[in-house]
């Protein structure tokens, strides 16, 4: 499947696997596209609707990119307030430290994420002898813990509400990119939940 637009589309990749495959990262071309041609006319494909892909789409939309399309082979995540999130098999938890929180604040998504996070106020260490030692965090940013998929779900909700023009397509795998063409062409295929799980 091809992405067609003028000027040529940008390709943004998210997730370590794609970077390892040598796909392009658009930091320079993004700045160039904001120049004379204008961000609004530039098509951008973001491969991967994980936390980084969705934040990238938010950042691009805030900078005026209007033709942003995000693809992920996984099915659409449940809403942040769904009951499934109590299931520990659903997704692993990750801790968001100061830098991550600052990024979420910058993109206007922090309150939404914070609502579904647990705050880590300190730690308890057992040495095996005597009483456990409790250390209370005194840092400015206390770590926020949330399931990875729920974080993605919050960012997806933020994107839909704030930038409904951005298209997010789930259950769609990008199987290749043809850079030989003047406008890079993506090969896409529909993906079942089981195939996505198997990677
Ligand atoms: C067990 C565990 C614990 C972790 N704990 C922490 C923590 O405490 N704090 C922290 O900051 N980080 C933690 N991490 C790391 C954190 O999960 C990653 O840094 C974060 O998920 C990276 O986000 P991402 O969007 O770049 O990639 P990912 O979350 O990997 O998302 C990539 C997305 O791209 C999609 N995708 C991949 N290939 C394709 C393709 N060809 N076509 C379409 N879609 C595709 C995938 O389906 C996926 O949804 C942890 C990771 C693990 C595994």
Automatic annotation (TrEMBL):
Q: Which GO terms describe its biological process?
A: kynurenine metabolic process
Q: Which cofactor does it need?
A: FAD
State which residue ranges cross the membrane: 38-61
Per its UniProt record, what InterPro entries does this chain match? Answer: FAD-bd, FAD/NAD-bd_sf
Database matches in Gene3D superfamilies? FAD/NAD(P)-binding domain
Swiss-Prot/TrEMBL keywords? FAD, Flavoprotein, Membrane, Monooxygenase, NADP, Oxidoreductase, Transmembrane, Transmembrane helix
> In what residue span(s) does the FAD-binding domain sit?
42-76
Coiled-coil ranges (or none):
none
Gene Ontology MF terms: FAD binding; kynurenine 3-monooxygenase activity
Q: What is this protein called?
A: BNA4 protein
Question: Is Ion transport among the key words of this record?
Answer: no
Q: Which domain of life is it from?
A: Eukaryota
Pfam families per UniProt: FAD_binding_3
């Amino acid at each position: 499947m091809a992405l067609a637009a003028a000027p040529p589309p940008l390709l943004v990749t998210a997730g370590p696997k794609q970077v390892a495959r040598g796909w392009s990262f658009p930091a320079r071309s993004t700045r160039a596209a904001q120049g004379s041609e204008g961000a609004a006319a530039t098509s951008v494909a973001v491969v991967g609707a994980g936390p980084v892909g969705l934040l990238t789409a938010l950042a691009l939309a805030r900078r005026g990119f209007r033709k942003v399309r995000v693809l992920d082979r996984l099915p659409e995540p449940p809403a942040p307030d769904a009951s499934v999130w109590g299931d520990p098999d659903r997704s692993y938890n990750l801790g968001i430290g100061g830098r991550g929180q600052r990024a979420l604040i910058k993109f206007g998504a922090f309150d939404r994420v914070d609502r579904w996070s647990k705050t880590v106020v300190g730690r308890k260490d057992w040495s095996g002898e005597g009483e456990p030692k409790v250390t209370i965090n005194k840092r400015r940013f206390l770590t926020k813990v949330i399931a990875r998929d729920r974080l993605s779900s919050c960012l997806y909700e933020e994107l839909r509400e704030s930038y409904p023009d951005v298209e997010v397509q789930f259950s769609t795998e990008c199987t290749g990119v043809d850079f030989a063409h003047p406008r890079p062409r993506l090969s896409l295929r529909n993906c079942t939940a089981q195939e996505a799980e198997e990677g």
